[in-house]
Design a protein that fits this description.
Low-confidence stretches: 1-26
Shape: globular
CATH topology: Growth Hormone, Chain: A
Number of strands: 2
CATH superfamily: MFS general substrate transporter like domains
Number of domains: 1
Helix content: over 70%
Strand content: under 5%
Radius of gyration: 20 Å
Number of helices: 15
């Protein structure tokens, strides 16, 4: 554990089952206070954001009558509008005295967006603008926040630290859509109630960040890295395959809302149940985030990252090959949660284990920008395929494309695991 970092002890057994290689049930997990508090901030912020995100497909498809292509474009913008903000905020954070101030601005921007949803007229144009602002806030805060997590965890336990954070984060993904579901079931056209509750959660999360979270102590030279240094590090031979593979896989893997709408239509379920899809997915993510993170630190982060894409291909194959009743749909959503547990925090841990700590923000921003732009292009492409030939073609493309990218480029990622193992032994 890094000097000066307070820790909490969590009983791993209470967070879910894990492979024997990851840990024993009685093992204790030491987690820096900064990581736990950032997890609380993310939990509250995701309660706020996911209340809105989980009802967005209902709003666009039922009230605005969007086509699949139009929905794909909006979903892509929702995923990709934060791309440039991610890179810019990472660069600024590396050259700023601390990462916390940049992250705070991002969280504040998203909270302001929730206020706008509550007080501005509910026209499609204003709603789309506010969503773009919210996603920009997410882009601003993600890279400096992930850099703070990396600086708060020992290098050998980066995936574990990110797993703990993502577990808190996913708790918000669980609670937010659940609240939205009950509001819509209880109140006719209850969108304003959802926006008010969303604002309250966002403000509370911002308060925890401002009042309780401190920047991790710096153990590097205090000189600021030059822009040339940051550019050179972000394009180094080790990081380059991570950027390429991460981007390509985000072209082929469907966005959440896109996948959920396809599953809902194939299963012929009521559209009002769509927020529950987020809830079930988050159960799988929450149960596995910490165990899978610990497993990644032990057997290899790239191995676990690629295994996560095997899980998401399984989701697509079930949707294509089996009738989507309640049981098969639940399996799909839990498997989708496993995909997130094996990829979200693990990808950040891969980056954190490669680059020097003084350019962590820039590097996290680079991977965030690459994956966000890829999601934007992928959502538009999948929307076009769905409009052209139906959801089966979109699912087939996602399945085959993910397998081709993982099989064709996975070896380069696995070399990073081998290099890390060699360094550890040395």
């Amino acid at each position: 554990m890094l000097p000066g970092q307070a820790v909490y002890q969590l009983d791993v057994a209470s967070l879910g089952h894990v492979a024997r290689a990851a840990s024993q049930p009685s093992a204790k997990l030491r987690v820096a206070r900064t990581i736990v508090l950032l997890g609380c901030v993310s939990c509250l912020t995701d309660i706020s954001s996911e209340m809105v995100a989980s009802v967005l497909p209902i709003y666009l498809l039922t009230q605005l009558q969007f086509s699949p292509l139009q929905f794909g474009i909006v979903d892509g913008l929702y995923q990709g509008v934060s791309a440039i903000a991610r890179l810019a905020s990472g660069v600024i954070a590396d050259r700023w005295p601390g990462h916390k101030l940049v992250a705070t601005f991002g969280y504040a921007l998203s909270a302001l967006c929730k206020l706008g949803m509550l007080v501005l007229p509910g026209s499609p144009a204003s709603f789309a603008t506010l969503i773009a602002i919210d996603r920009t806030g997410k882009g601003v805060r993600t890279a400096p926040r992930d850099a703070m997590i990396s600086l708060s965890a020992p290098p050998s336990e980066l995936a574990t630290g990110f797993g703990v954070h993502r577990a808190f984060d996913t708790a918000g993904v669980f609670v937010g859509p659940l609240i939205a579901f009950f509001v819509l079931r209880s109140i006719a056209d209850g969108f304003n109630v959802i926006f008010a509750l969303s604002l309250a959660a966002a403000v509370l999360g911002l308060g925890v960040l401002v009042l309780l979270v401190q920047d991790p102590p710096s153990h590097e030279p205090t000189t600021k890295p030059s822009f040339r240094t940051m550019l050179r590090v972000c394009t180094n031979p080790q990081l380059r395959p991570v950027l390429v593979v991460g981007a390509l896989l985000n072209v082929t893997v469907m966005g959440d809302a896109f996948l959920y709408v396809i599953l809902q239509r194939l299963g012929a379920g009521a559209v009002e149940t769509l927020p529950l899809f987020y809830v079930i997915t988050s159960v799988g993510f929450l149960a596995l985030a910490v165990p899978v993170g610990r497993l990644a630190d032990r057997i290899g982060r790239a191995r676990v990252y690629l295994a996560g894409h095997v899980a998401v291909v399984g989701v697509y194959c079930i949707a294509l090959g089996l009738p989507l009743n309640a049981a098969s749909l639940t399996v799909c959503l839990l498997l989708y949660g496993a995909y997130y547990a094996a990829t979200d925090g693990v990808l950040a841990a891969i980056v954190g284990g490669i680059v020097p700590r003084e350019v962590l923000g820039s590097s996290m921003g680079a991977i965030g920008t690459a994956t966000s732009l890829a999601r934007l292009g992928g959502s538009v492409l999948l929307g076009a395929l769905w409009t052209w030939q139906g959801p089966a073609l979109a699912l087939g493309f996602a399945s085959v494309g993910t397998v081709i990218v993982a099989a064709g480029f996975g070896r380069r990622l696995l070399q990073l695991d081998a290099h890390r193992t060699h360094e550890t032994r040395a």
